[in-house]
Records
---
Amino acid sequence: MLSLLSGSPPFPPFCQRVHAPYDPQRGVECDAGWPGRNCNEVPLNGAGTYGFGPFNSSSTDSSTCGNDWANDTFKREFVVHDSGSGSWAVTENFDDGHFVTLAAVSPGACETSSHHGSVVTADNKGNFEGFLSGSVSGGTYTPNGCKAATADCTTTSGFILAVFGPAATYSCLTSGGASSFFFDYKGHGHELIYRHWINASDDLGGNRGDIATS
């Protein structure tokens, strides 16, 4: 589970990842002088839908037991859709993801509904992709927010702050908030006996599998 905030707190258990329901062939532009940052808002297919990114990002990744099990690098892209009545649907896509395991309890070790391992050794590598989707209420939509000198749109919380302001509430950052997520991890280390882990919200089948060496 990726951290949504700056630094390395655990990814909230009520908000993990999912595959985006939007057209993957979306056009997104960045200022040439700021690759991976300060990207322009780009209108997408459908009225009131906009794309931001990609933003080069990194994060620790926490397991179902709560411990960190890997370090991740990836690209974030945000899709914002005007839902009307002052609310916005926000989907965050995690693309071109790579992870390197720590010596730790495995990500699926505390699952109760699938076969899994218990431990993963350090330096096993793999890939992942996924998304999370929630809603924003309150605040004021600022399409050029990521271009501000103080903006940091490389994190979820930073993007919400830059684009919607400090009064905004994002369901993926609120305990008990409604959200969907789905992340698909595939490990390539020769020591691995479990090589496939899915980290998903209950509406998308829940967690299953593992990345583990024992």
---
Amino acid sequence: MFSKDLELTIGQCYKEAREQRHEFMTVEHLLLALLENPSAAAVLRACNADIGKLGRDLRSIITETVPVLPPNDERDTQPTLGFQRVLQRAVYHVQSSGRKEVTGANVLVAIFGEKDSHAVYSSASRKCRGSMSSITSRTASPRSARTAASRSPVMPAARPRAPKSRAAIR
């Protein structure tokens, strides 16, 4: 069900989180690992994302927010619910489109469905939000990702708006 490249990416994600003794493997860990995944990186490049800046931002966010296990703690790194939801969303998307294999590009699209993730709000990743599903629906190769990106304008990311007061609604 997962492509070979995606299996390697998820394995690398787990390995890095575990080596750093992170208590949790997060959506940010996953996006960081996807920067090295061929299909996800092709989509990000097609969106003109600054992959280097995105990587630096993600490392900083992970360092600031993910708890580290104490040296004598024998627990293993666990995926967060958000991490699991992203993978599940990618599988559902692929199954509903009649395809059989989940790629890094599919997981990249699924990340944008997460509401409370720094990965979604990272300035570099927001560039792709508007055209992400259009690009990945046509990505069979990096070449087709570039072609799809040229056909689909990149929309500015939606900014959270403050709720209107009752007085302003009337």
